[in-house]
Amino acid sequence: MEGERTEQELQRRQKLTTLRSQGIEPYQSRFDRTHSSAEALALFEQAEKSAGAEARTLLAKVDKLGEEPYKRFTDLDLGDIIGVHGTLFRTKRGEITCEIEDFVLLAKALR
Prior knowledge:
- By secondary structure, the chain is of the alpha+beta class.
- The protein has four helices and three strands, in the order ααβααββ.
- It has a three-stranded mixed sheet.
- A hairpin with a 5-residue loop joins β2 (81-90) and β3 (96-107).
């Protein structure tokens, strides 16, 4: 039925309202990007001199981000788009991972 929202949409809209009440703009118009994901991977692999997996893993630690930003990170939903600043490293399993030092919500997914 058109016009009716799913439980997921209602929850995400509530998160949207909460973000705005905290002074966080859920749809940023600007993010100063230094590298695309592909560029960062290429630089990492060039420096490491080995080919590997794509960086699809993000590591967020409360001691790096702080409690409030960490909570905001853990409250993200599938489909939310974020910009991150951090350090790339290779895990013991060989996956390239970004340890997040800071992040910005660029777009909140509602569906």
